[in-house]
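Agenda item 2: heme C complex prediction
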Amino acid sequence: MKKFILSACTLFFVASLAQAESGADSWDLVSKGRYIAQLGDCTACHTQPGHPLFSGGVAIDTPFGQLIGANITPDPETGIGRWTFTDFQNAMRKGHRPDGQLLYGAMPFTAYTKVTQADNQALWAYLQTVQPINRAIDTNQLPFPFRLRSALNIWNMINFKEGEYKPDPRQSAEWNRGAYLVQGLGHCGTCHTPKNIIGGDKGEHFLTGNTLGVWFAPDITNNSHTGIGKWSQKDLVEYLKTGANNYDIASGPMAEAVENSTQYWKDEDLNAAALYLKSLNTRRTEPTPQPIAMDNTQMVTGKAIYADRCSGCHVPQGEGVAHLFPKLADSPLINGDPVSLIHVVLAGSRAGGTVAAPTHPAMPAFGWNLDDQNVADVLTYIRNSWGNAAPAVSPDDVKSLRKTLEKTAQ
Ligand code: HEC
Ligand code: HEC
Ligand code: HEC
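Presented output:
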């Protein structure tokens, strides 16, 4: 009898030890998963401001209409509470739901497919600790015929290559970590890679710049005219961590990406991502364009407007003031698609705040006191001065963006 009690006690002791240990393990797994959710910026599309974490409702504009981020809390009716890990892994890796329905590419599974199963397991463990919220979301707001999911089969055939990231043995472990983050969880290509007419990535032009409605996500490869070729690895890390560096200040969708995601990346992950970006240069062979001549009429008027309205902050030679007013001279963003530039000049912009750099410098709106021709002239001047060279901006471009901005009230 005594022996029985003893062994029962031992059993209990061993069992509770084991439980404590698996408790610590699962805690580690959950905190790893929480970090993976930050790396992947799930919140951007699944947490609507003012609503509980991951309860969905964020509208995502696509050229085909709107999709709404799903409720991914563990609620059994309206969230993913009835899913198994395999169901979740299939959504991330293959882009389909447990009922077989295919997901739209607005959920960036084309990038998340690269995520390892171990990382998905941690993410899954974390998602299960989130407060379940009963909130029904109809994710598909697309008009006919785009709202038919049956066409997604063909879309996937053209645009989707399933498979976990395979490390390149010729590269260092750090480079591979960077590639894994940029191509996979970071889904940087969702915004920075140009798209084909059905909205899929043009893979051969990975990260060379893409227009997102009223913003332009510039080339972030190492090209020295259109990309971040002149930035050091340290400049890139600083931008991703704080939203600003000596060259630029993040606005619009990038300010949000920094605020929700990259500011929380560990330094070693930011360094790895930067190292990888610095190794990409697919446009090396393209010749650098020549700037428009200074005696061109748009250039002459643009120069006068710049001196009068802009040079106070951006300084006469376009050098800007580090962390406060972005540098316009020799800047890849200025040489790219002008849509963001027109947007910022018409509507103004307030840079995002981060833990590391909490001030929000602001660019005033000029839409009310500069007409379409003025805006086109000043931007043409900026795009062809101080080392920049890019096509002129036409008053028609300004006019049409002004209309779009009025319609969407920004
Ligand atoms: C750029 C926006 C975006 C980001 C970032 C994003 N999602 Fe989604 N997600 C969506 C959209 C939109 C849908 C709905 C798609 C549909 O209905 O076809 C969705 C659907 C899902 C679904 C399927 C839910 C269901 O009930 O069908 C899961 C699971 C999911 N997302 C998980 C995640 C996780 C985990 C992350 C972060 C690693 C993430 N998403 C990041 C936009 C996004
Ligand atoms: C939601 C869309 C979106 C996502 C996701 C995104 N970016 Fe951006 N990014 C932008 C936009 C838009 C800009 C231009 C910001 C501006 O005008 O200030 C930008 C700017 C940048 C710049 C500055 C380039 C320059 O010349 O000034 C860098 C560097 C950058 N992004 C890196 C990244 C990396 C790395 C990732 C992935 C971890 C990423 N971005 C994900 C939209 C995005
Ligand atoms: C009061 C100071 C101030 C004045 C005046 C000003 N800007 Fe700006 N500008 C800023 C700030 C601050 C930003 C960064 C805003 C952000 O990132 O959201 C900015 C951003 C920009 C950008 C986007 C650059 C980038 O890399 O993201 C352009 C283009 C620009 N300004 C052009 C102009 C032009 C053209 C004028 C004159 C018509 C002008 N600015 C006048 C403060 C100013």
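Discussion summary: The chain has a mean pLDDT of 90.
Owner for follow-up: CH.
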